[in-house]
Design a protein that fits this description.
The complex is a heterodimer of chains A (about 290) and B (about 300). Chain A is mainly α and about 290 residues long. Helices cover about 70% and strands about 0% of the residues of chain A. In chain A, α2 crosses α12, α4 runs parallel beside α7 and α9 packs across α10. Chain A is elongated. Chain B has about 300 residues and is an all-alpha fold. Classes of the chains: A mainly alpha (about 290), B mainly alpha (about 300).
Chain lengths: ~290, ~300
């Protein structure tokens, strides 16, 4: 740890740092492509993700003998174009990943900074909350809550937001404790800054680098959780396309049409991998002293 | 040390109390439980009979007290759907999940510790980079998909392993790998860091100066000291694994606790879910408590926090 500054570094320098980091460029590129695919899905496909075409069911991807370029990733058991389902499915993953990781971040940072800054009873209460949250089996609680309140995007996003804040809280609590002992905080206190002023101006900016890294980790975590919930039938509800749901729908044909699960699975793997690598890259570029 | 242990015990007890309240309140979040139990075609009289039978009219704290008192004796009520005592269902299913979790942990340790040690002995070597790569790739693999891919390869293509069931230990190989690999990256990195710390210490240099065989130093002196934090991480990870086994159990049709929880949730049958969440939380709390005490015993500075 260490390397705290009272103000952010020069932006030009770090941008060059970003470009010189190959892993970051490649993974950022893949992530960008998936993002573009999700946003411009209607332009990138001639089909609708919901339209069933019973005459064209079970068409394999183009690299199989029976494959055609009209459905180059094939069609599913209901004759829906798989490429189109994949594009629209990216929307579910990205939306749920980004929004729930952000909600979790707001919660976790608020708790972690309060615990670290105020200490004492506040810290004890928040440490208790962190322990409580960690003791709950995430996936079971999530399944139960979705079963109780239905699997809309809103429920899933709020639910995951309420379940994934622990890492933010642990990290910010520790960092805030360390920061509080620094001289520039003492000088802010001496200059008469209010508590909220110190937290907003002196503490939060110094947490930013670490928070971006935790944020990327939690986006990946939320995407995997959503996929697992949808796979178990208690996440995104059919016919809405979601990669986890696509794997689950293809599961029954595992022995005959393995590509039905291979394709959305690979997409999921690639998305999560690129998000994790972007996080690692940002950590390397912004805080090289953390390299071990 | 005693003060530290008492503090941790109080924390664990507090967490369990709140978890028990949360699990208890679950049946009420689903709406009126009497209507759920009575079923769709029930008359008002039926619903009232159910309400009376399950004592849903009592004040909430009295219901919680009664539920908790029974739970402490291992009586978690009856499953609405299976019409069987939840306690029996749990004792039936629990050994399967525990076996799965234990094997998964064995797999994770067998992979993580040797790779972590090798990576620490030669930092930045090929092995080090390889182990880093495994952990980066492993963290991005969706567990359910990895499990299905294993089935596709080892059951469909190669026909080496059975795709589902629990008849023999052979059935547990793929499930244990699927559940265990997720814990590997963290344990591998910790083994590496911990080993690097120990290898840089004075007593290891002394051992080298004494002319001891490098293998003896590595395994007898260094690993023995470096492994303690890994063991306590493993305890915590085992807690997570038992809680996360629901996905793996559903893929491989293993009828353990996770599978029971999933089925019960799908059927709106909440008494088993309450009991399972409570049991798994209790296990997690117990495992982290052991890990904390182990850590504090090894590293006195922790006790002061």
């Amino acid at each position: 740890m260490g390397g705290f500054t009272s103000h952010a570094g020069a932006p030009g320098k770090s941008f060059r740092g970003f470009l010189s980091h190959h892993g970051l460029v490649v993974s950022g590129g893949i992530l960008g492509l998936i993002f573009i695919g999700a946003v411009f899905a209607p332009l990138l496909s001639a089909y609708d993700p919901y339209t069933q075409d019973l005459a064209n069911r079970h068409i394999p991807p183009v690299w199989y003998e029976r494959g055609t370029w009209e459905h180059f990733l094939g069609t599913d058991a209901l004759g829906r174009d798989y490429w189109t389902r994949l594009l629209y499915g990216a929307r579910a993953s990205l939306f749920i990943g980004f929004v729930s990781a952000t909600i979790a971040g707001l919660l976790g940072v608020a708790l972690g900074v309060s615990a670290g800054y105020f200490g004492g009873r506040v810290d004890a209460a928040i440490t208790f909350l962190i322990n409580l949250r960690l003791s709950l089996p995430v996936i079971l609680v999530a399944l139960a809550v979705v079963a109780l309140f239905s699997g809309t995007f809103l429920v899933i996003v709020v639910l995951l937001g309420c379940l994934l804040w622990d890492r933010y809280a642990v990290v910010t609590r520790t960092l805030t404790k360390q920061l509080k002992e620094k001289e520039f905080i003492a000088s802010s206190v001496a200059l008469g800054s209010s508590r909220t002023g110190i937290i907003a101006k002196d503490i939060l900016p110094n947490l930013a680098n670490h928070l971006i890294v935790v944020w990327t980790l939690e986006i990946a975590h939320a995407i995997l959780l959503e996929a697992a919930l949808s796979f178990l039938g208690l996440g995104v509800q059919p016919p809405t396309p979601s990669w986890g749901l696509m794997v689950s729908e293809g599961k029954d044909l595992l022995f005959f049409e393995g590509w039905l699960i291979a394709i959305p699975g690979c997409a999921l793997f690639l998305l999560v991998l690129s998000i994790n690598l972007v996080g690692d890259g940002i950590r390397d570029v912004t805080a090289p002293e953390n390299l071990t | 040390m005693t003060r530290y242990v008492i503090g941790r015990l109080a924390l664990a007890a507090g967490v369990m109390l709140v978890v028990s309240m949360l699990s208890f309140s679950m049946i009420y979040m689903a709406g009126d439980p009497a209507i759920t139990i009575a079923g769709e075609s029930a008359t008002d009289a039926d619903i009232n009979a159910v309400r009376k039978f399950y004592r849903f009219d009592d004040p909430i704290y009295a219901q919680y007290g009664a539920w908790m008192a029974n739970a402490l004796r291992g009586d978690f009520g009856r499953s609405y759907y299976l019409r069987a005592p939840v306690g029996e269902l749990i004792t039936d299913r629990f050994p399967t999940t525990l076996l799965l979790g234990g094997l998964a942990m064995l797999f994770a340790m067998a992979l993580a510790v040797p790779l972590g040690v090798a990576a620490a002995v030669k930092p930045n070597s090929l092995v080090d980079r390889l182990s880093l790569m495994i952990s980066v790739l492993g963290q991005a693999l969706p567990g359910f998909w990895f499990g299905l891919m294993l089935i596709l390869l080892f059951s469909v293509k190669l026909r080496w392993l059975p795709p589902s069931g629990t008849e023999s230990l052979k059935n547990f190989i793929m499930p244990a790998i699927t559940l265990g690999y997720y814990a590997t990256p963290a344990m591998m990195r910790l083994t590496r860091t911990s080993m690097l710390d120990v290898l840089a210490s004075d007593y290891i240099r002394t051992a080298h100066a004494k002319g001891l065989h490098p293998a003896v130093i590595l395994f007898k002196h260094a690993l023995r000291n470096a492994i303690a934090p890994v063991v306590s991480l493993a305890a915590v990870q085992l807690g997570f694994m038992l809680g996360g086994s629901v996905v793996v159990e559903s893929i491989f049709s293993i009828h353990g606790l996770g599978h029971l929880a999933w089925e019960s949730i799908s059927r709106n049958d909440f008494p088993p879910v309450q009991a399972i969440i409570l049991t798994l939380s209790m296990l997690y709390v117990a495992l982290t408590f052991c890990a904390d005490v182990l850590n504090a015993w090894l590293d006195p500075s922790i006790r002061l926090e």
